[in-house]
Amino acid sequence: MSLSGKVAIVTGSGRGLGLAYARELARQGAAVVVNDVDAEVAADAVRTIQSDGGRAAAVVAPVGSSDVAKRLVQAAVTEFGRLDILVTNAGILRDKSLLKMTDEDFDAVINVHLRGTFTCAREAFGYFKEHGIPGRIITIGSPTGQRGNFGQTNYAAAKAGIVGMVRTWALEMKKAGVTANAVIPVAATAMTKTVPYFQKAVEADERGEAMPAFFRHDLGFGTAGDVAGLVAFLASDAAAGVTGQAIGAGGDRLQLWTHPDAAATEYREGGWGYQDLVENFGALFGDKLQSVGEDFLPLPAELQPEPAEVR
After folding, report:
1. Quick one: which of 10, 26, 100, 194 is 20 to 30 A from 309 by CA?
2. Residues 176, 124: contact at Cβ < 8 Å?
3. Each residue of 86-129: pLDDT tens digit?
């Protein structure tokens, strides 16, 4: 098995995508520290991995603080003797449009997604460096962090920030042989279940049926298991040369996202003053402005969501 003898931490792995990642890492031979805020959910996840023939232990705690990050690393060392892999998957949603979003809504999402990724990665890297381990840090981004999404100021900021940290960590960790990458999943989860556009795909998944090809191929939207293979690959020795990347996975599709780069460049001796921009910006850049949000293909008639029941 490709990860035999390795030990991994997967935050937010009691259910959904996180559990799929944890199960795949265990299937490939790694021992896994499961993390969730619900003790019963965490215990069920451990039992599931063990019933698959894997090894697992649980830490019940909300990620974000340095103390919890330390607990997670210590649990890996205490339970399984070492740490090789960190997957920072834990996350919450507090979706609201900007004027309705409270400070608490913003801070809660930033604390779990962004600060939780930062504190756990810092603790894991410290362990890797101290013990000379060429570890793997795999963070979880989102298409929202890449392109934006209505009502998700907090989530977009956190997910974009995670990719920014990964690019920085790839530079800082290179000498130690540690890699850092971001996975951009597109899959049926509790978060996508409420989106009418994906209704037929999620319903098929819940029935244990294959999703329609339109979702899997045309949209790159699939199951949690479709993303798990990429996480396990990035955790392996085979991915030693892959770092600082944002890689999308969903359904039948695999994507390597570009890093931000200049879409157009113009020069003017003496610089660009206000009047220069008023007179020239549209002609120079008007047809090169970048799109925002995701443009989904029209749903075929047979995949249209069922009309809401009138009560």
Report:
1. 100
2. no
3. 999 999 999 999 999 999 999 999 999 999 999 999 999 999 99
- Give domain status of residue 212, yes or no: no
Give residue 85's domain range. Answer: 7-187+223-256
Distance between CA 86 and CA 70 in Å, rounded? 13
Entry pTM: 0.94
Number of domains comprising the chain: 1
Alpha-carbon gap, residue 244 to 174, rounded angstroms: 10
Q: How far apart are CA 131 and CA 146, in angstroms?
A: 34
In a domain, 15, yes or no: yes
Closest of 177, 179, 199 to residue 188, by C-alpha = 199
CA distance 210 to 208: 7
Collect all residues with Cβ–Cβ distance below 8 Å to 187 and sequence separation of at least 6: 17, 221, 222, 223, 224, 226, 227, 250
Active-site residue numbers?
Answer: 155
Euclidean distance between CA atoms 280 and 213, whole angstroms: 46
Q: Domain with 115 in it: what CATH number?
A: 3.40.50.720
- How many other C-beta atoms can be found within 10 angstroms of the C-beta atom of residue 198? 24
Residues 6+ apart with CB under 8 A from 234: 136, 138, 179, 181, 183, 242, 247
Q: Give the tokens for residue 153.
A: 């100021």
Kindly state whether residue 300 falls inside one of the protein's structural domains. Answer: no
Does 280 fall in a domain? no
